[in-house]
Amino acid sequence: MQTELSTISIFVTVVEAGSFSNAAEQLHLTRSAVSKSIARLEQRLGVTLFKRTTRTLSLTAEGALFYEHSQRAIAEIHSAESLLDQGKINATGLLRVSAPVLFGQLYVAPLMVELAQQHADLQVELSFNDRTIDLVEDGFDLAIRIGTLDDSNHLIARKLGDHRMLLCATPKYIQQSGPVNHLDDLHQHTTIAYPYSGSPTKWHLQDKNKQLYAIKPKAKLMLNDMQAIKNTVLLDQGIAWLPDWLIHKELQDGSLVQVLAEFSSVDFPIHVVWPALTYMPLKTRLAIDLLVAVFPSRLSAN
Question: Where does the record place the HTH lysR-type domain (predicted)?
């Protein structure tokens, strides 16, 4: 007996969500609607798909078999949809992107605006968040991540570039407070740092011979926003450790100078990551292609 694809999709969602309630939330249905759909499916198939208790929900042997084949069938349908989608000229639907707050505003947002302008039927939602979100659970198509990636079987990544952290100050501050010739001199200067658990984040530096140093600044000011730290440094208030992409313009025009230029941080990789799915919608593929093609040159030029 044939079953409706929507009912099978609900069944697969219940299995993967672990409960009727979680599935209902994901599908934007009531729990009652999900339960009735599963009951109708069981009636059509003539088998019991789930073992139900007040606290747990698990598959019967018949349910496990049906899930295996249902999941495979839905994956094949999605794959076919993707192939058809890739033949379209214009991307459609909602593209959800997550990016770090400041980096996302400066570098990711302009590219996503550019993508949205190129595709009239594409809607882009860009979420700025410095925490590491779960793409699948939170419903995002892709994310930008800075730093070493955790091992994951659920995500695919493409490297977009690297960035470094540099020590900087204004020429006026250096003139008033004296030069910094050695790492130890930093302890005699006013420093501005990013806090972590109530204390300044360590500055991880390396010299030209790749010798590593971890310095904990005696910060007079701690600000939990890189833009705020930069603004404070520009007011001649001290020395800070800031991303090169954030201070590139100021270093070029001389409003900031690099302190201890022979030292920099290790490279921090920048990646675009997306869920490891059996298919990739056109909107996601176009966004990744644009980031990979344009991002490195745009990052180095700013």
Answer: 1-60
